[in-house]
Amino acid sequence: MISSRLSRHSRRAAWVGLLAATAWARPAAAAEPAVPDPAALALFESARELVEKGDWAAGCAKFEASLMVYSAPSTMLNLAKCYEHEGKLAKAWSAYKRALVLNQETPGAERKSALDTIAKEGITQIEPKLPRVKLTVVNPPAGLYITRNGQEVPAAMLGSVIPVDPGPQTLAVQAPGFRAIRKSFTAAEGKTEEIAIKLEPESGDAATPGGGRIPAWAWVAAGGGVALGVAAATFRVDQAHIEGRQEARCNGELERGCPPLSEYDPTEDNARKKRDFALFVGLGAGGVLALGAAVTGFVLGSRSPSRGTSAGPVVVPWIGPNVAGAAVGGRF
């Protein structure tokens, strides 16, 4: 109980010490011709009073407002302490760094040295606890857009180790023609999270070991070619069946050995044979064309990297009363 009180007392004493050290001085006009904005000074003093009373939320909001009006290193240091109190370590670290820059123009060597010391001590205490994230995107496509917790991540940050605040993080990655990815993780103090993202095309084209992609139309053409080939074989089998039946009826002599028309009229079987043969030839040719287009797609896809969805050959089968086939259109 006593140690807890002492801890709270020491933290409060440290904060009061910081407030005292970072209070705005009022130098002579000769030392600092540019007088700070009165509104910024009023906000700063009000923020100090609120924080001393334990009202961090209201006090820190006023420090932020004061900084927007006038960028003073003392205000930045107090704001860094606010972020640190809220657990926003990355923002606190950045604020301490910014305070060092602003302090370069502080008049008075003693005050400037005191503010430098406070900023450097804050950086030293925070840096070992900073969570960090290293994000990479495999083969980043054109139009890549990344956000972390709703804030855009510039492409220049890819591959760099970036400090972040501890706690839940959400990454959203998207690019035209690719499936969007959303990934959540928790940034832990003192840890570096390495995340590699690989976007997949929306078309679902299959990747090949050589780095290219077999286009979807090649798979469609292959399936269509097989289907046309099976259909052609079916009609050829039916044609052979009719031919066998006629040879049996006509004793192998279709011209002279057939029975009289009153017993067997070959007209219907002959028409059926012709239709079967026409369908066999048409569908077979269409199947060959479709399989040829598929092979072309496989070869080109395995050699060329994906450049998005492109139009390729389109195989359209057609069947008429006595003939069938397939049309191949599109572009390679």
TrEMBL record:
TPR repeats lie at residues 73-106. The keyword Transcription regulation does not apply. The chain crosses the membrane at residues 216-235, 277-300. Gene3D superfamilies: Tetratricopeptide repeat domain. It comes from the Bacteria. Residues 1-30 form the signal peptide. The keyword Cell inner membrane does not apply. Keywords: Membrane, Signal, TPR repeat, Transmembrane, Transmembrane helix. This is PEGA domain-containing protein.
